[in-house]
């Protein structure tokens, strides 16, 4: 009985953002895998055989699901991998015209790293473990870029500096975590299974465009939904004077928005992997 109550207590403790983020990243990877060309899937899985050469035994890397969270896992080793931190986001000001260059000095932003790693993955002259590293970053960063607050910013580090409440859930939460975590999980779980084979029409409608186009789209979602809902006012009105409150009426309205971003990420990732590996 004592063990039961200890376990129940632990479930109620605040969960680190990474744990929630893992759910969304793995779902995006699963959607991509379900929509890969068979040749792509075979070539991708061959690359995982070289995982030991990357020297990260503390971070599993045996399939695309592992790849989707590997870049977050290695960041714990700051001495070796700390330089990759800025690659996970791009703080593009939502109160000015979209300007990706302003948030991407020297290629240190998520959009630039998507293009860079797609090119590395496609280069068959490179050793397998180098291409595998590129694969992991590509899988993860496509997910990151489609999470709206990895692309939009209002001088608050993509919502990280804005405390927030998710419905009745208080505790240690900020606006970024809310979108990365509980809202993403709700979106994935609320409705038909997102992990399936999509038809050609569904894919074509979502995979057109460039990385920059997709980045602008995510930025628009952050401006039109993430910040606007948090402030209950125009996104670029007066700065918030109190914590963001995403209430139980707003959450269901945001679920389709977050759900679409997850679907876009999964199908676009499959498109990029097919282009690099076929």
Classified by CATH, the class is Mainly Alpha
Kindly report the CATH topology: P1 Nuclease
What is the mean predicted local confidence, pLDDT? Answer: 90
Give the name of the CATH superfamily.
Answer: P1 Nuclease
> How many independent structural domains?
1
Distance between the termini: 55 Å
- Secondary structural class: mainly alpha
The biggest beta sheet is recorded as: 2 strands, parallel
The unreliable regions are 1-20
- Estimated helix fraction: 55-70%
Strand content: under 5%
Q: Tell me the number of helical segments per DSSP (H or I, 4 or more residues long).
A: 12
Number of strands: 4
Radius of gyration: 19 Å
Strand order of the largest sheet: 1-2
Q: Would you identify the CATH architecture?
A: Orthogonal Bundle
Helix-strand pattern: HHHHHEHHEEHHHHEH
Secondary-structure topology with pairs:
Blueprint: H1 2-12, H2 17-34, H3 38-47, H4 64-74, H5 78-81, E1 92-93, H6 110-122, H7 128-146, E2 152-153, E3 164-166, H8 175-180, H9 182-189, H10 200-207, H11 211-231, E4 244-246, H12 250-277
Parallel strand pairs: 1-2, 3-4
Helix pairs in contact: 2-4, 2-7, 2-9, 2-12, 3-12, 4-7, 6-7, 6-12, 7-12, 9-12, 11-12
Based on the model shown, name its key terms:
two-stranded parallel sheet, disordered N terminus, 4% strand, two-stranded parallel ribbon, single chain, 278 residues, P1 Nuclease, mainly alpha, 4 strands, 56% helix
What does this entry look like structurally?
The chain is mainly alpha-helical and 278 residues long. The chain has a single domain, classed as P1 Nuclease, CATH 1.10.575.10. It contains twelve helices and four strands. The strands form two sheets. It has a two-stranded parallel sheet with strand order 1-2. Helix 2 runs antiparallel to helix 4 (64-74), helix 2 packs parallel to helix 9 (182-189) and helix 3 (38-47) crosses helix 12 (250-277). The model is unreliable at 1-20 (pLDDT under 50).
């Amino acid at each position: 009985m004592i063990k039961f109550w200890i376990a129940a207590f632990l479930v109620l403790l605040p969960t680190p953002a990474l744990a929630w983020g893992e759910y969304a990243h793995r779902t995006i990877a699963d959607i991509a895998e379900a929509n890969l060309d068979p040749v792509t899937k075979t070539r991708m899985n061959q690359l995982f055989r070289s995982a030991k050469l990357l020297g990260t035994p503390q971070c599993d890397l045996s399939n695309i699901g592992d790849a989707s969270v590997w870049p977050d896992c290695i960041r714990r080793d700051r001495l070796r991998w700390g330089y990759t931190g800025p690659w996970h986001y791009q703080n593009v000001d939502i109160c000015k015209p979209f300007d990706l260059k302003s948030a991407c000095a020297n290629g240190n932003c998520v959009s630039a790293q998507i293009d860079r790693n797609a090119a590395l993955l496609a280069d068959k002259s490179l050793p397998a473990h180098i291409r595998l590293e590129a694969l992991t970053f590509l899988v993860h960063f496509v997910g990151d870029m489609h999470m709206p607050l990895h692309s939009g910013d209002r001088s608050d580090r993509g919502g990280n500096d804005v405390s927030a409440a998710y419905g009745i859930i208080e505790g240690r939460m900020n606006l970024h975590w809310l979108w990365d975590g509980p809202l993403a999980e709700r979106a994935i779980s609320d409705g038909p299974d997102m992990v399936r084979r999509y038809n050609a029409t569904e894919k074509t409608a979502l995979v057109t465009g460039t990385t920059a186009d997709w980045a602008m789209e995510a930025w628009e979602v952050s401006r039109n939904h993430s910040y606007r809902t948090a402030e209950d006012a125009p996104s670029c009105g007066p700065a918030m004077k109190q914590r963001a409150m995403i209430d139980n009426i707003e959450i269901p309205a945001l679920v389709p928005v977050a759900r679409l971003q997850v679907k876009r990420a999964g199908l676009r990732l499959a498109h990029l992997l097919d282009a690099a590996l076929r």
